Amino acid sequence: METSLQKNSIDVHEIRKDFPILNRKVNGKPLVYFDNAATSQTPQQVIDVIAQYYSFYNANIHRGVHQLSQEATDKYECARQTIQTHFNAKHSHEIIFTSGTTHSINLVAHGFGTLLKKGDVILVSALEHHSNIVPWQMLCEKTAALLKVIPMTQEGELDMHAFAALLKLKPKLVFVNHISNALGTINPIRKIINQAHKVGAAVLIDGAQACPHIKSDVQSLDVDFYVTSAHKMCGPTGIGMLYAKEAWLKKLPPYQGGGEMISDVTFDKTTYADLPHKFEAGTPNVCGGIAFGAAIDYMNAIGFDKIAAYEHKLLEYATKELLAIEGLKIYGTAKEKTSVISFNIEGIHAYDLGTIIDKLGIAIRTGQHCAQPIMDFYGIPGTARASFAFYNTFEEIDALVKAIKRAQRMLC
Amino acid sequence: MTIAGIQNDIVEEFSMFDDWMERYEYMIELGKSLPIVDVKFKTDENIIKGCQSKVWLHADFKNEKVIFTADSDAIITKGIVAILIRVFSHQSPKSILDANTDFIDAIGLKEHLSPTRANGLVSMIKQIKMYAIAYQTKQQS
Questions:
Q1: Inter-chain touch A381–B73, beta carbons under 8 Å
Q2: Distance CA A218, CA A180 (A)
Q3: Rounded-to-integer distance, Cα B27 and Cα B31, Å
Q4: Same domain, residue pair A79 and A220
Q5: Which of A286, A301, A316 is the last residue of a domain?
Q6: What pTM does this model have?
Q7: Where are the beta strands (DSSP E) in chain B?
Q8: From the centroid of its chain, how far is CA A125?
Q9: Which of A27, A351, A381 faces B76 most closely, judged by CB atoms?
Q10: Could you give the maximum distance between any two Cα atoms of chain A, in Å?
Q11: What CATH number is attached to the domain comprising A390?
Q12: A320 is in which domain, residue-wise?
């Protein structure tokens, strides 16, 4: 009989059997994969879906009359509905398949090129990834709109007082990540969306780091745009989504021209296809879209509540164990954070640490994490970042601690 | 000593080590012997940026030979920089331009010279060759 404890927690040893890559060795040592914030690993269930696609029904979609095209189209659109249900969008056509978060942000930024005018203010948070900074800088160059930054605190949280003050500038748009990739801070997006709407600003939330940990409800959040990538949540690379409220998708011009996104083409005039196809020019990543749906099914079968609870235990344990290492400092100590630990050790460059522990089979990320403004804020060249997923174990954290101590002996 | 001769010496030195740890420990030691670039040359102009680590490189030209000094903020990078300086410093521009860096592969450090590693080393080798071209042009003019 299942006990209440089992019901509320995950069986990590059973789950690990789903991930063939976790059995491999690196430099002769068992792989310890702690770079989940960069990309998550893929379970066999998703790998099988990819193999089935190419083995049985690979076809171009939406325009073939033949059986294979029909099957592929059905599965692709079914995946769109899976994503719609997962994020609780009102309509499936509010889910636009993109190549990933960066593509989604660029699509929106491009669209706003026609809607902004000189002097309009847009707000971006100090915690952003370069992919949620650069497209807006480009947009500002094009439209002469002004980019203002919501500052952060030493703990790595957004300064909400400063945000309130910035709202007085009546921004047209606000961009914040749901969770910071460099520090793991969970931003108070519900509050941000609510306050931004009061001054008439539209809000885009970058959910790339949130989607593997939190099930977001876009209707309840009342968010205008929510973007993410499949590969952060057990899906393949090269596929992601843009959720946008229907009204915005009707308002924004298409991003790319091509096949699939048109309804009528003559050399005088082209009329665009209905949503979502207006934003999906060319042959899409059919297999990727289907696998994205499978990844969401896989994670939901485990349960996001269980995943979050288990990862929180990993975070607490790792924080305690890492802080016991002499000279180790954690960057990003927000009250609300996910299983990401960004740190440095006194006298050791993160690159050296990452290089040595890689030799011991442990994969972490080192450097600026595509978030140079955060590193500049702390006045450091970069950090080492360990990010945990629901398939990681407490024993692996012990291995990390042991490896760091060994590197410390070599490098200090 | 010729560049090829120095490279052979380095390959021989590294062949004495049994495992990666000894190799890296030796490299860290070599990093400590790097002819450090004078602080006045540690300028933004002389910085070779990688997202992972930084390298500073300065060149002088004396008696028809290019003399390099350098530094890095990461110690493993510094070790490799020291190896490269040992190979390329006090050589003529022509021999620098004719030389390759295949020996890095032979001593098991190829991964650090991958362009994706973003540690400034690949750009550093390019910069060494650029200095050699510049001094060669100066010699010929």
A1: yes
A2: 19
A3: 6
A4: yes
A5: A301
A6: 0.91
A7: 47-49, 54-62, 65-72
A8: 16
A9: A351
A10: 72
A11: 3.90.1150.10
A12: 4-43+303-411
- Which residues, other chains included, contact B78 with Cβ-Cβ below 8 Å and sequence gap of 6+? B31, B34, B71, B72
Same-domain check for residues A149 and A17: no
Statement to judge: residues A262 and A169 lie in one domain: yes
What is the CATH number for A117?
A: 3.40.640.10
Q: What is the DSSP letter of B38?
A: P
**Mutate: best of A352, A356, A406, partner B, most B CBs <10 A:** A352
- Taking an 8 Å cut-off on Cβ atoms, the answer to whether A27 and B20 are in contact is yes
Q: Are residues A166 and A67 in the same domain?
A: yes
Q: What are phi and psi of B48, to 5 degrees?
A: -115, 110
ipTM value of the model?
Answer: 0.85
Confidence check: pLDDT of A246 > 70: yes
Is A370 designated active site?
yes
pLDDT class of A3 with cuts at 50, 70, 90: very low
Length of chain A: 412
Quote the CA–CA distance of A144 and A141 in Å, as a whole number: 5
Peptide bond into A43 cis (omega under 30): no
Q: In angstroms, what CA-CA distances link A360 with A309, A339, A354?
A: 29, 22, 10
Does residue A87 contact residue A221 with C-beta atoms inside 8 Å? Answer: no
- Judge: A382–B52 Cβ closer than 8 Å, yes or no: yes
Query: Would you tell me how many other CB atoms lie within 10 Å of the CB of residue A138?
Result: 14
Beta-bridge partners for A386: A341
Residue A367 has pLDDT above 50, yes or no: yes
**Domain end among A274, A301, A328:** A301
Which pLDDT tens digit goes with each residue over A164-205?
999 999 999 999 999 999 999 999 999 999 999 999 999 999
- A271/A328 Cα distance (integer angstroms): 59
- On whether both A118 and A163 belong to a single domain, the answer is yes
The DSSP annotation for B71-103 comes to: EESSHHHHHHHHHHHHHHTTB-HHHHHH---TH
Choosing from B16, B21, B39, B51, the catalytic residue is B51
**C-alpha A119, offset from chain centre:** 31
Q: Which of A27, A352, A359 sits opposite B74 (nearest CB)?
A: A352
Question: Residue A359: closest CA among chain B residues belongs to which residue?
Answer: B20
Residues 346-365 of A with CB under 8 A from B: 349-352, 355-356, 359
Residue at token pair 């050296």: A352
Instruction: Name every chain A residue with its beta carbon within 8 A of the beta carbon of B52.
Output: 350-351, 366-367, 382
pLDDT by residue (tens digit) across B80-103? 899 999 999 999 999 999 998 888
Q: Residue B138 is encoded by which pair of tokens?
A: 């100066």
Which chain A residues are within 8 Å of B53, Cβ to Cβ? 349, 351, 381
The count of structural domains within chain A is 2
Domain-by-domain residue ranges, chain B? 3-140
Q: For residues A31 and A55, state if they share a domain.
A: no
Domain B3-140, CATH 3.90.1010.10 — does that match? yes
